[in-house]
Automatic annotation (TrEMBL):
Listed name of the protein: MarR family transcriptional regulator
Source organism of this protein record: Qipengyuania mesophila
SUPFAM superfamilies recorded: CheY-like, Winged helix' DNA-binding domain
Length: 322
């Protein structure tokens, strides 16, 4: 007897079946997304091209919105920005697939809805993305495939949580539940009134190494791939932190496409890590002041402080020449 791996009908806590909006210019992609959403138990609300949806009457979004945007045209980006605003307000779950060439423009359109962004995905990746949406819905009964999706999401969250905890431990004097910066009672090295208001240099906060040192570390890490399978050393979170630390030292902005390349893993995986690290307050999204449709990624101040303490403790200059 063949096992049934389809989802139960997707219903919210009140028992109403969840709906889906499918938007894609490529006919075969639109057909695949429609078929997969229906198989997952969603009720179809709209299924059309981006242009048709933009020109049609304003309709309510589905609980799930599947979008495929292969080309970053002005009209397509305008629609994505509208979907971001409407999805963020309505609480809709967005899954957006795009290409590497359009990634920066597409990424810049989303600041409110926290979509899953997939880069040049296979059909299986879209199915997994739908599974993640289902895993976030409370009181939803799933079969075998849903449990696997839940475990995958939990493992990723746990990994990022452990990274955040390690970075916090690198900052001395941290209190439980605190961040990298806080006001505390003056230390014994502090001089009060009548003592020249001098502060001892003993507790002076270290700074990040110069960019050349960090780039040398990155180069040494990448050199391992010439001798070993790259997957043996896959550590996207650390590679992301190193690349952003070097950019911070160089006073350069980093676009999401560049950061995905630096992560050394498939772009969709890198985007997932970036999103988790932003949620964990390790990274921040910075809007381009000259173009609101573009956004950059940077280290949060507390992350930069933790990295500086880490490099000071292990001796970054010594590591760079190993």
């Amino acid at each position: 007897m063949q096992a049934d791996f389809e989802y139960e009908p997707a219903r919210d806590a009140s028992g109403c079946q969840l709906s889906v909006t499918v938007l894609a210019d490529r006919d075969h992609v639109r057909a695949e997304m429609r078929e997969d959403a229906l198989a997952a138990g969603f009720r179809l609300r709209d299924c059309c091209s981006l242009e048709e949806y933009a020109q049609g009457p304003l309709a309510a979004l589905g609980d799930l919105v599947l979008v495929d945007c292969a080309e970053a045209s002005a009209d397509a980006l305008a629609l994505l920005s509208r979907l971001d605003m409407r999805g963020g307000k309505a609480g809709a779950q967005l899954v957006v697939s795009t290409t590497m060439g359009a990634l920066d423009d597409v990424f810049g359109c989303f600041s409110m809805s926290a979509p899953q962004i997939l880069v040049d995905p296979a059909r299986a990746e879209r199915v997994i993305a739908i599974g993640r949406v289902l895993a976030r819905i409370p009181n939803l009964r799933l079969r075998e495939m849903g449990e696997e999706d839940r475990l995958m999401l939990l493992r990723l969250t746990e990994q990022v949580g452990r990274i955040a905890e390690r970075l916090e431990r690198l900052s001395p004097g941290q209190r439980e539940g605190g961040g990298a910066f806080r006001l505390e009672t003056p230390s014994p090295g502090w001089r009060g009134e009548g003592q020249d208001y001098a502060v001892s240099g003993k507790d002076e906060r270290p700074r990040l190494p110069d960019a050349a040192t960090i780039r040398q570390l990155i180069k040494a890490r990448q050199a391992r791939m010439r001798f070993f399978d790259a997957e043996l050393f896959a550590d996207p979170a650390w590679d992301i932190l190193l690349d952003l630390a070097a950019a911070r030292a160089e006073r350069k902005q980093v676009c999401v496409t560049s950061l995905c390349i630096a992560a050394g893993v498939p772009a969709t995986t890198a985007l997932r890590w970036i999103g988790q690290m932003v949620e964990a307050d390790l990274l921040v999204r910075v809007s381009d002041p000259h173009d609101r449709r573009r956004a950059y990624i940077a280290l949060a101040d507390n992350t930069a402080d933790a990295l500086a303490r880490y490099f000071a403790e292990v001796g970054a200059s010594e590591l760079a020449v190993v």
